[in-house]
Amino acid sequence: MKLLVHICCAPCFAAPYFHLKKEGHEIYGFWYNHNIHPYTEYKKRLETVQKFAEKENIPLIVKDKYELEKFLRKAAFREQERCRSCYYERLKYAAIVAKKGNFDAFTTTLLYSKFQRHDLIKEIGESLSKEYSVKFYYRDFREYWKEGMKISRDYKMYRQQYCGCIYSERDRYLK
Predict the structure, then answer these.
(1) Which of 32, 45, 98, 117 is the most buried (most CB within 10 A)?
(2) Roughly how many angstroms between the first and final C-alpha of the chain, as a whole number?
(3) pLDDT class for 21, splitting at 50, 70, 90?
(4) Strand ranges of the sheet holding 2-7, from the earlier edge strand across to the other edge
(5) Residue 23 sits in a domain of what CATH number?
(6) DSSP characters over 34-66
(7) What is the rounded (10 degree) CA torsion for 104, 100, 140, 153?
């Protein structure tokens, strides 16, 4: 299957990438993360993805737009539902790119994280699949969590300590 994988960060991409590749899928990476704060964090994550893609010879499509204001406008006064909007924006662009690029399906490394809402990601992915007529490939990549951590250490990847948005950065300090 020609599969477009939305990448939130390189550490979350590594283990799913190796498993999907081993299964014979043709993998393309896609970077779009308008929510990451601050800008220096955004750049670190993007550079780490680019280095990994280059090292592994992974075709990478980058929508390099730092759109913090767009994220904040949608999250303000709806902080409890901010993940829904954030997932939607990133998966929408993945679906658009997958459709335009004649991919068989699209998926996301958000499905690797133990901290993300899989039910919501799946719901949004399936909805966008219908809207854009391209399959959403749902797979629970959390089983590769420990393996991914080891790979990220072996590759000396930059490993962030929060999801990416200003709210998740706040939450890591207030726990």
Answers:
(1) 98
(2) 41
(3) very high
(4) 60-62, 26-31, 2-7, 105-108, 135-136
(5) 3.40.50.620
(6) TT-SSHHHHHHHHHHHHHHHHHHT--EEE----
(7) 110
pLDDT in tens, 64-95: 999 888 888 888 888 888 889 999 999 999 99
* Cα 28 from Cα 58, distance rounded (Å): 6
Structure tokens given for 173: 């300090």
Q: Residue 90's Cα: distance from chain center in Å?
A: 8
Q: Give the structural domain span for 142.
A: 2-174
CA dihedral 125, 128, 132, 133 (to 10 degrees): 60
Query: 28 in the Ramachandran plot: left (φ > 0), alpha (ψ -120 to 50) or beta?
Result: beta
> Both tokens of residue 14?
């590594």
**How many separate domains does the chain show?**
1
Q: Which residues pair with 29 in a beta bridge?
A: 5, 60
Closest to 162 measured CA to CA, from 152, 173, 154: 173
Q: How far apart are CA 15 and CA 168, in angstroms?
A: 23
